[in-house]
Design brief:
mainly alpha, Growth Hormone, Chain: A, 23 helices
């Protein structure tokens, strides 16, 4: 692993702001013995609960949509609303931490997240569920960076690398467990319990954290907050996300609502850029984009994560709605990504500083391209292992993806700029994941409609293909309307399968194209990737 940062540097990096972070008070000596173990478990539980919620709903969308009487594309708002709110809350972490103290903010984050999790399970309709998911995502914003901050303050400086490695393993296991746990709960209990399970975990984590860390509060100082910049950020990101989510339902730009949302997104984005470039205390330090390595690395991280996360939503939707898999079976297919991810991540963290991160990132993108190409060959008649093998291979790409890209993004930056760079790159990653989900599901449905129209063109009276099938079904007792309904269902299956193949094929080519961007980056050895490993998740 790369050189280990000091506790103060790592804590500042976790907040996601460039402003000066509070120094760790001298009396806050590292924890020891059972207290250290309990503290580590409590912080890891909070992190696990948070990260779990980014993937646990992926396989439950068909059940949620069916129960609430909405389409699956509308159901994906459950995922995107959480992601957008979480991304917007990240830049505020540094401000609220220094204003109220890391321990108080962390505890408030856990308790609010737990409360809103319970309310998500109680939601009677999609609108209320989305409201509580937004509040849940916003309250989750400070939880992950502050768990890292408190964890590092619990260990001796020379053991900080081990602490980060343990933290990273938690963030790797949670996304793997999410689809498995979500599928099992949905099939065997009911979907609200994917939110209810956070309640005992959250209360336990908050109780243990309070008992250990309440006397280890960080210093408090008042700092100005860029409320105008934050407001503009909410406007343009929120407008763009709603436009992507509602576009298909409202027939895109034929709708005045979509036009208004697009205008709000464009105007909000332009005003946000102007304001942030000239404000003395910007909520996002856009001057970092003057650094070519940071810019290219952040663009690669956002594009790659958008496709990665979008596919994690699209694949289980297709498996359940078209192939006929249960939520549990779909979760098992996704969970295989953890096999190589868990095996390779510790090795990569140890030796990454010895190699050029561009080669590692290139390898990752090419493996992703292979995985998506294999998925572009899927048919409804494939076996469980034919669906699962690409996911197994994807574990290799996942392990070699996050940490090297963060190494590229943070390489060469002075220490005082790493906090802002980490926060901005993570904002881009989380936002891209939400946008990717909306784009994948929307284009999937659009392509399915196109394929359906093309396939139906072969079904007409007297067709040499359709007529024998219709006559055969009518001879078995089907009425003409029933026979046509069955045939239409078969056409739907093929249309949506051809569409999902199109999406995976496009993703494969995009990953290949992004390799060229990797090599526009100036060569450098990884100097920050190992230390920032946790931030990648």
């Amino acid at each position: 692993m790369a050189s280990t940062p000091s506790i103060e540097e790592s804590a500042a990096g976790a907040t996601g702001l460039e402003q000066q972070a509070p120094k760790t008070p001298a009396h806050m000596t590292p924890l020891t013995g059972g207290t250290l173990v309990l503290g580590t478990i409590a912080l890891s539980l909070a992190t696990f609960m948070n990260v779990l919620d980014t993937s646990i709903a992926n396989v439950s969308i068909p059940a949620i949509a069916g129960d609430l009487g909405v389409s699956s594309s509308q159901g994906t708002w459950v995922i995107t609303s959480f992601g957008v709110a979480n991304a917007i809350a990240v830049p505020l972490t540094g401000f609220v931490t220094q204003r109220f103290g890391a321990v108080k903010v962390f505890l408030a984050s856990i308790l609010l997240f737990t409360l809103f999790s319970f309310l998500c399970g109680q939601a009677p309709n999609l609108e209320i569920l989305i409201l509580f998911r937004v509040l849940q995502g916003a309250s989750a914003g400070p939880m992950i960076p502050l768990s890292q901050t408190l964890l590092l303050s619990s260990y001796k400086p020379q053991r900080a690398g081990m602490a980060i490695a343990m933290w990273s393993m938690t963030t790797l296991v949670a996304p793997i467990m999410g689809p498995l746990l979500g599928g099992w709960i949905t099939d065997n209990i009911s979907w609200p319990w994917i939110f209810y399970i956070n309640v005992p975990v959250g209360l336990l984590a908050a109780a243990v954290t309070a008992s250990i860390y309440i006397r280890r509060e960080t210093p408090i100082r008042k700092l100005p907050i860029d409320w105008t910049g934050l407001g503009l950020l909410v406007v343009w990101v929120g407008s763009l996300q709603i436009m992507l989510d509602k576009g298909q339902e409202l027939d895109w730009f034929s709708s005045p609502v979509i036009i208004a949302l697009a205008a709000a997104a464009v105007v909000g984005f332009v005003l946000f850029l102007i304001w942030e470039l000239y404000d003395d205390h910007p909520v996002v330090d856009l001057s970092l984009f003057k650094i070519p390595t940071f810019t290219i690395g952040t663009v690669l991280l956002a594009l790659a994560y958008g496709m990665f996360f979008g596919s994690l939503v699209l694949l289980p939707l297709w498996l359940q709605e078209i192939v006929g898999y249960t939520a549990t079976d779909a979760g098992e297919v996704l969970a295989w990504v953890g096999l190589f991810a868990l095996m390779l991540s510790p090795v990569l963290g140890r030796y990454l500083s010895l190699v050029d991160t561009r080669w590692v990132t290139t390898f990752s993108f090419l493996v992703f391209a292979l995985v998506f190409y294999m998925r572009s060959q899927f048919t409804t008649g494939d076996s469980y292992w034919e669906y699962s093998i690409p996911t197994v291979i994807q574990g290799i790409a996942t392990a070699t993806f996050f940490i090297p890209l963060l190494g590229i993004i943070l390489a060469g930056l002075p220490a005082h700029r790493i906090p802002a760079a980490s926060g901005l790159s993570n904002f881009a990653r989380i936002t891209a994941g939400s946008f990717g989900t909306s784009i994948y599901t929307t284009w999937w449905t659009d392509r399915a409609d196109l394929h359906h129209e093309q396939l139906v063109g072969h079904i007409y009276a007297g067709s040499p293909v359709a007529s024998p099938i219709l006559h055969g079904m009518q001879a078995q007792g089907f009425s003409q309307e029933q026979a046509l309904t069955v045939i239409n269902r078969l056409i739907d299956q093929q249309a949506y399968t051809l569409a999902v193949d199109d999406m995976f094929r496009l993703s494969a080519w995009l990953f290949v194209a992004m390799v060229a961007l990797v090599w526009l980056i100036k060569p450098s050895r990884n100097s920050a990737g190992g230390d920032a490993a946790a931030g990648a998740h």
